[in-house]
Design a protein that fits this description.
alpha+beta; Alpha-Beta Plaits; YCII; about 120 residues; YciI family protein; Dimeric_a/b-barrel; 6 strands
Length: about 120
């Protein structure tokens, strides 16, 4: 079954890292991928998202027409900063893999959620 591992945190903390600090965190992240990719548990790598100020939000107005605004819809301290898709037997296995993630600046929580299948 497929699971989305959502990497959440305050992306403003990431922006305060020195180049050496950023490099150190990324080495840890790359090591995590090197550990799990050969096992077949990671599907198609992952996707790191740009900072929240680059976001656009689309929502429906009262008549169902789209309204586009800058930034995330809600003012949140934590936002989703990256997504990794996992292929696991069950949510417990996906959670065990997520628990090995190397937390660094701007990363404070991981959310593991099953991906809907309409097969």
């Amino acid at each position: 079954m497929k699971y989305a591992m959502l990497i959440c945190g305050d992306d403003r903390e990431w922006a305060t890292l020195s180049p050496a600090g950023e490099e150190d965190v990324m080495k840890q992240v790359y090591a995590w991928f090197e550990r799990w990719q050969p096992t077949g548990k990671i599907i198609d790598g992952g996707a790191e998202l740009q900072p929240r100020q680059t976001a656009k939000t689309v929502r429906a107005d009262g008549d169902g027409r789209p309204v586009i605004t800058d930034g995330p819809y809600l003012e949140l301290k934590e936002v989703i900063g990256a997504i990794v898709l996992l292929e696991c037997d069950d949510v417990d296995e996906a959670t065990r893999i997520a628990a090995t993630w190397p937390f660094g600046a701007g990363m404070s929580a991981l959310e593991v959620r099953p991906v809907m299948s309409h097969e």
